[in-house]
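Q: What would this complex look like in 3D?
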Amino acid sequence: MGKKKSHNPQVSLNTQDRKERVLLNEVDRVRATLPTPAYLAWCRQQCRKRGGLEFDSVRAVIWRDLLLLIPQASSTSLTPSSSGVFSGVNNNSGRASSVNAGASIAGNSSSNSNTTTTSSTVSGRHFMLAPSVPYAGGTGDGGALSPNCHLTVLDCDIKRSLWHLYPNDTIREEKRQLVKSLIMRCLSHRPQLHYYQGLHEVVGFVEYTVGAHVPRETLVAMVDQLLSQHFYAFCHQNMKSCEGILHGVHFALKVQCPELAAMLEELQLGPGTHFALPWVITWFTHHLAESHP
Amino acid sequence: MASASPTRAKDIPAKIVVLGESAVGKSSLALRFVRRDFIPNQEATIGASFLSRSVSLVDESPPVTIKFEIWDTAGQERYRALAPMYYRGAAGALVVYDITSADSLRKAESWIGELRRNADPQTVVVLVGNKCDLESMRQVSIQQGQDLAEKEELLFYETSAKDGTNVDALFTNLGKTLLSRGVIASGVDRRSTMSRNLQPPGSRTPKSEQQKRCDC
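A: Here is my prediction, written as structure tokens for the whole assembly.
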């Protein structure tokens, strides 16, 4: 998971703003010139760069495109309209540029390969759409929702979440209800996926990072894609699909740093203990130092 | 009488697992004991977390120091599959419920059943009714907790992680019980101690050793 905006006091706000604008323009330029598969490969490369994407506005564009752009449809157009795609929604962030995919998407839907999520063309590029099943529960009891939402546990987790992201009580409570509604809306149309403790932290962080830069429906579509792709293995009813990945973490550690792996085994923290579980299933948003300040 | 002390080589390790439904206060209980503090904005435990604290039991002859190595587990049902790796080989298990939630007591009963079936028979189980500071919201009476503990032959405490009621007493008495039953012993490998003292479930807790205390 990326870091928040840099707060180096040596760098003036204007310099930061300029840097942010340059980066956004760069994304804009590459996005306009490369075919979708190449553009997405470039996006992945940017994510792996030391220092990451640096700005939430940049993350909003790149995360959105990595999650929602459909590569197969890329050849139709190489020149998206910057007014349509990077239109400066900027709900309350005051930042230079933002994305507006959800608001721009209209009509012309098609089917995704393995889900009920549909896609639509935006400026010649195909985007995934938000789940078509509306969330009817509002901010309250959730109504007659499918059991895969695990409402009791979700409620418990939501009530004790987002402390470190939103110090203001009122804003934190609003954000909690938003995170809850995002999770419930996405899960309610995917009964094969289940809420797990930790998912609320992931969705909370995604909302925190890109929520001010993308329309609500785009955010819903992004969370939906995360659940159905990146976090699919963790959303199963049981832990079986997770366990293989966790064993893989220890194996990777053994290859990269055999001394550390040996030390962990000596401390009886071998692969069977799943020591990496909280980090893996929460995309490293669940940090020990933050859990127990 | 117990006092905290830094970990030393001669400390007797005691693996303790904390089990129970989500949001009953398992992490708060463990943190209250280890850090003597209550964190109101405690977040949900993901998977499990580990904490430890050494406590000297100066009343013992000779005085001993027990290092409680506490595995605090997540409460959601889906993580239940991970629980055996935490309670396997545990000297003690705290099965926690929330006195303001009758459902959480039912979940505690199911944890006790699982421990009966799968845990080491020597594992000392403590039934803990947490949040006893919330008297006005109580759904589970002290008697209900005591009855379950008596039926299952468990130690029993009502605690408040928030104000600290009975938390130190719980761990101190657990440590003493572990010593008196030979589950842990100074200078003796625990596994060999346990294998010498295997008893069938149900016969492991003499009535005279039962603790049914609530100082709320």
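A: To summarize the key features: The domain at 12-181 of chain B is CATH 3.40.50.300 (Rossmann fold). Chain B touches chain A through 22 residues (CB under 8 Å).
Q: Very helpful, thank you.
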